Amino acid sequence: MLKQPEMILIDVDGTLVDSVPDLTFCTDTMMEQLGLPPRGENKVRQWVGNGVERLIKRALVDNMEGEPEEDLYQKAETIFLALYADNTSKRSHLYPGVNEGLAWLKSQGYRVGCVTNKASQFTYPLLTELGIIDYFEIVISGDTLPEKKPHPAPLLHAANHFGIAPEKALMIGDSISDVKAARAANFQIVCLSYGYNHGVDIRDSQPDSVIDSLAEIKNLLSQAA
Ligand SMILES: O=C(O)COP(=O)(O)O
Ligand SMILES: [Mg+2]
């Protein structure tokens, strides 16, 4: 059973937003402009979650691991960043239950923040264009601090900002990076079953609870000790 938290931090890609359609469009258009083959949505879905730099590198080498040539990477990054600036939310949407869940959390007086590995120049427009930016009292992006998830620093930074002890904090995410960051920060962790976890069932990472919709957070926290 969960302990009642005072602060809740929520991940973006795969948790609040299905962003893979825009990320796939930008990845495949970038590949095309470089004269390379498109990678397609299934691969991009597995590659999301460790920031834009890793996504571009994975697309270039067509693998989770590995480093492309530096020149090629620089060219690709310039193309991708320009494309994603124009295609941040065109094809992306909130998952069902997200508005309901966020509204309930706010109505209950939880301190709510956002912690994503997405670069900040894209996080703010995305959350704004999808109409949910005002739910968050703090937004920590992949480039806000020197470290990103799975490092605990972004989570601890938010806890410190609110003056809340890690034991009174809950992370909500979709990937093994969220679980690792939460465990390292001594936060509780709830995951969404539908997100992007590099093609692996998030239950394998043993979060404290797994839910199928953010709207289910209401029942979960109503039963918290
Ligand atoms: O990889 C990214 O750019 C963002 O992923 P996240 O929002 O799930 O942290
Ligand atoms: Mg995610």
TrEMBL record:
Name the UniProt record assigns to this protein: Phosphoglycolate phosphatase
InterPro entries tied to this protein: HAD-like_hydrolase_sf, HAD-like_sf, HAD-SF_hydro_IA, HAD_2, HAD_sf, PGP-like_dom2, PGPase_prok
Superkingdom, natural source: Bacteria
A GO CC annotation given for this chain: cytosol
Keywords: Carbohydrate metabolism, Hydrolase, Magnesium, Metal-binding
Family from the record: Belongs to the HAD-like hydrolase superfamily. CbbY/CbbZ/Gph/YieH family.
Pathway: Organic acid metabolism; glycolate biosynthesis; glycolate from 2-phosphoglycolate: step 1/1
Record: active site: 11
Cofactor annotation: Mg(2+)
GO biological process, one term: DNA repair
Record-listed Mg(2+) binding positions: 11, 13, 174
Catalytic activity field: 2-phosphoglycolate + H2O = glycolate + phosphate
Residues spanning the signal sequence: none
EC number, as in UniProt: 3.1.3.18
